[in-house]
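User: If only I could read backbone structure tokens as easily as an amino acid sequence. Those tokens are not coordinates but codes from a learned vocabulary of shapes. Could you go through the record with me and say what the backbone is doing? Here is the record:
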Amino acid sequence: MSQRQPPAQETDRLFVTDRPREDFRFDAAVARVFPDMIRRSVPGYTTIIPMIEVITERYAQPGSRCYDLGCSLGASTLAMRHGIHHQDCVLTGVDNSAAMIERCEHYIALDDHPLPVILKCEDILNTELEDASVTTLNFTLQFIDPDARLRLLSRVAAATRPGGVLILSEKIRFDSATEQDTQTRLHHDFKRANGYSDLEISQKRSALEQVLIPETLAAHKARLEAAGFVNVTLWYQCFNFVSMLAFRPQERD
């Protein structure tokens, strides 16, 4: 009997040669190289993913729903899956890229955890949310129109049980021009250390300029609180990449 094989993974060489500028898209070409791209581009990604499992294990509630919004190839979905120890939980991954969802289905099928995973190819701004205990937005909100971010987070908060948590990972910017320059230089050094050329770094940065819109940590915290979350906690930072926890208030007696 033949065994299901994982999708072929390629080295990220999308920007290795000079090319006309166009906005970054999560298309089939990006999906093929995404595991390599994100590992070599996002400082701390290989720490954040296993910690999502740890956080999920603590905060997933019996009989609740858990969501990975902007699941891409399912790395954080799988981390959540392995952190959920309640058989009556429902785990859903959502992404608007058909190429990402198609490959994600293979990774989910290859995983040996018994908890079912529902995958939806749809816009997270419109996806149905309810009765959540853990929701993850792992480097997703930064790709949402800034004017729509509060609406999304308010919907997530309204759908979250008391004591539930949102895990929000983002690239951020800094108010201080000096700090911004320092953190950007260090991020680029990280990419060079992982084999990216100056041309690749420059071209990808140009492609992302109008697509990935970072904000300050203070702006994120203020929006999360406006959406209905409390106790916003920065639990991880490496250069200009962070991950936060935001909680729904416990019900009072």
The chain has a mean pLDDT of 95. DSSP finds eight helices and seven strands in the chain. Residues 196 and 212 are 19 Å apart (CA to CA). The longest strand covers residues 160-171.
